[in-house]
Design goal:
Blueprint: H1 9-19, H2 43-61, E1 66-67, E2 70-71, E3 73-76, E4 81-84, E5 87-89, H3 94-115, H4 118-123, H5 125-141, H6 144-152, H7 157-182, H8 188-196, H9 202-222, H10 224-230, H11 233-236, E6 247-250, H12 252-255, H13 280-283, H14 304-316, E7 323-326, H15 328-333, H16 337-342, H17 347-368, E8 373-379, E9 386-387, E10 393-403, E11 409-416, E12 422-424, E13 430-433, E14 438-447, E15 455-466, E16 472-484
Antiparallel strand pairs: 1-2, 3-4, 4-5, 6-7, 8-10, 9-10, 10-14, 11-13, 11-15, 12-14, 15-16
């Protein structure tokens, strides 16, 4: 069997020129050789497919779930409301998104410190959709050798049909993915209705095509190049690794010197290691690297080389684990798997875990205790104070009442902290606010003439939520000021 990628023409010409002591012009650009990844089965492959199914069931299924006669998960940018099951968030709740991003970053640091690029190898959208597209390619065009033969042949009816079928299926998956993504921002059933009736809006059409094209290009063509050249994670991952990080490792002491042999041969008599130099680990690698050359930044930690090497070891009658998850300290010191796992609870990991737990608990505790009623008090900027009948002094305010629940709420407004002050408002200061609505109401506060000294005086607006029985269902107090003219 031959390696996945042969030496490039540039490298061959350069070698010949050096050998003949001739000058040669070498282009700084080298085209990327296509990688034909071989299909593989095994423990880590099964886990990878588990995450493919799990992530896609959630991604494609969530927009179709309904709750309280609306989409269960919907980010309604036009109405500036974000529905996440029973939780309703507003732009003012941006702090929760910040907390979520911090949790995601810390989780990435933690998982990387413990076991390398787990996210990249199992749950990253680039990996997931590449797996889906490669599966379609395998079913339509055949296994690795069949795909290589198909691409080498001149164009024929068979090749045209297979290529058209593959790209047609890729486009269907890509466009469905784009439509599903847009379905998180536009109600999914309305979106599908617009597609059926050919009434899709220009922006919806643009984003469906944009995300569909991105999926089609990244998973169908760019694949490993996204991980190697576009994703920044591959570049700074080494900063999160240490010598106790579990990474995909080739056991050089056991495998070298490598060489081909018959199954019946005794490796010790041939002075060979366990590696039979079959290059299967290279052929199954989605990024086309040779793990026997050591860990490289292109490695996404998917474990495909482990699965295929274990298969080869089984066929040869050798012990598994020539390629495995291990740590640098474990390989250097000859530690067992248990010894390497015990090093998981090292200070760096404990610090990451503690910070992650604290922030997660704080975020969700705050969400659980979050008051569904919000009140903002804004003074009338047109007139700080004015005289009304009988010489009373009046200040006008605008109250923004936000109802973050799924039911209509009635809020009663009162004032306190200013002697002799009287609140005047429509409906005796009781306002109905529809579900998930922000309502602005105008109220006025009056005080008797000469009752307070000129200047600014503090007061508080108390807004109480009334239950169906008229009792207090919670309250919010907002401070403001009352201005007395000179």
């Amino acid at each position: 069997m031959t390696p996945t990628r042969e030496p490039s023409e540039v490298a061959r010409r350069t070698h010949q020129a050096v050998a003949s002591d001739e000058a040669v012009t070498v282009s700084l650009y080298q085209s990327q050789a296509k990688i034909y990844a071989r299909a593989v089965t095994g423990f880590f492959t099964n886990w990878r497919w588990f995450f493919v199914w799990a992530t896609q069931i959630v991604f494609y299924g969530l927009p179709w779930l309904s709750l309280h006669e609306r989409q269960a998960v919907l980010f309604d940018l036009e109405a500036r409301r974000f529905y996440i099951f029973n939780l309703i968030l507003y732009p003012q709740d941006f702090i929760y998104l910040t907390g979520l991003l911090i949790i995601s970053a810390l989780s990435l640091f933690l998982f990387t410190a413990v076991a390398g690029r787990l996210w990249c190898g199992y749950a990253c959208p680039q990996t997931v959709y590449t797996e889906i597209f490669m599966w379609i390619e395998h079913k339509v065009e055949g296994d690795r050798s069949a795909r290589m033969r198909l691409d080498k042949h001149t164009w024929s009816a068979n090749r045209a049909v297979r290529k058209a079928t593959k790209h047609g299926l890729w486009l269907l998956v890509a466009l469905w993915t784009g439509a599903t993504f847009v379905g998180y921002f536009t109600p999914m059933r309305d979106l599908m209705g617009s597609v059926v009736t050919n009434a899709l809006g220009p922006w919806q059409t643009f984003w469906v095509i944009f995300y569909g094209f991105a999926t089609y290009g990244n998973a169908g063509f760019m694949r490993e190049q996204v991980c190697k050249y576009m994703c920044p994670y591959a570049r700074f991952q080494s900063a999160m690794f240490d010598k106790d990080t579990m990474i995909v490792t080739y056991d050089e002491n056991r495998g070298e010197p490598r060489g081909a042999r018959k199954k019946s041969d005794d490796p010790s008599e041939l002075n060979l290691g366990s590696c039979i130099d079959c290059t299967m680990c290279v052929q199954v690698c989605p990024t086309g690297i040779d793990i026997r050359n050591g860990l490289q930044y292109e490695c996404i930690g998917c474990g495909a080389c482990i699965d295929v090497c274990d298969e080869v070891m089984d066929k040869m009658g050798y012990a598994r684990g020539l390629v495995k998850y291990a740590t640098q300290n474990g390989m250097t010191n000859g530690w067992s798997k248990a010894q390497m796992l015990r090093r998981t609870l090292r200070p760096r990991v404990l610090v990451y875990t503690s910070i992650l737990v604290l922030i997660t608990v704080a975020l969700f505790t705050n969400l659980f205790l979050r008051d569904p009623m919000r009140v903002d008090v804004i003074r009338d900027r047109g007139a700080l104070a004015r005289m009304v009948e009988k010489g009373w002094v009046e200040n006008v305010y605008r109250l923004q009442l936000m109802n973050a629940t799924e039911q209509t709420q009635h809020y009663a407004v009162h004032i306190q902290g200013l002697d002799g002050a009287v609140l005047t408002a429509d409906d005796d200061g009781v306002f109905a606010v529809l579900p998930a609505e922000l309502r602005a109401v105008a109220v006025a506060v009056r005080v008797p003439p000469m009752s307070h000294a000129p200047g600014s005086h503090p007061l508080q607006f108390v807004v109480r939520a009334l239950t169906d029985t008229g009792t207090d269902g919670g309250s919010v107090t907002e401070s403001s000021t009352f201005v007395m003219p000179r």
